[in-house]
Amino acid sequence: MQEKQQSFFRLACDLSVQHAGYFARHTLLPERLAYFEESARISVQKQAELESAAPQKSFEEYLQHYYAQYDTV
After folding, report:
1. Are 36 and 28 in contact (CB under 8 A)?
2. Res 57: pLDDT
3. Are the C-beta atoms of residues 2 and 9 closer than 8 Å to each other?
4. Residue 73's pLDDT band (boundaries 50, 70, 90)?
5. What is the model's pLDDT at position 1?
6. Mean pLDDT over residues 44-52, rounded?
7. Structurally, how many domains does the chain consist of?
8. 31-44 pLDDT per residue, tens
9. Which of 4, 39, 52, 61 is closest to 13 using CA atoms?
10. What angle do CA 10, 12, 14 make, to 5 degrees?
């Protein structure tokens, strides 16, 4: 950055362009893409199950429970 006298923002932008070009030239095999798509689908499904299964505490209840662990210290 100092050699080229460029800001961090300019460096980050240049690297982003380089990385975008790399990934545009190196596409995933269909089997690999299907694997990642299925993994993402399963992950979203598991998250939805977790969120709907457990009753949600209010934020105040969460904080009370969280800080209660330090009462005995």
Report:
1. yes
2. 86
3. no
4. low
5. 73
6. 92
7. 1
8. 999 999 999 999 99
9. 4
10. 70
Q: Among 16, 36, 20, which residue's Cα sits nearest to residue 28?
A: 36
Task: Name the residue range of residue 46's domain.
Answer: 8-68
In a domain, 2, yes or no: no
Structure tokens at 53: 């299964």
Taking a C-beta distance cutoff of 8 angstroms, is the pair 1, 7 a contact? yes
Residue 3 covered by a domain: no
Contacts of 7 (CB under 8 A, 6+ apart): 1
Residue 26, helix vs strand vs coil: coil
What is the mean predicted confidence (pLDDT) over 45-64?
89
Is 11 in contact with 3 (CB distance < 8 Å)?
no
Enumerate the H helices of the chain as residue ranges: 8-25, 30-53, 59-68
Indicate whether 44 belongs to any domain: yes
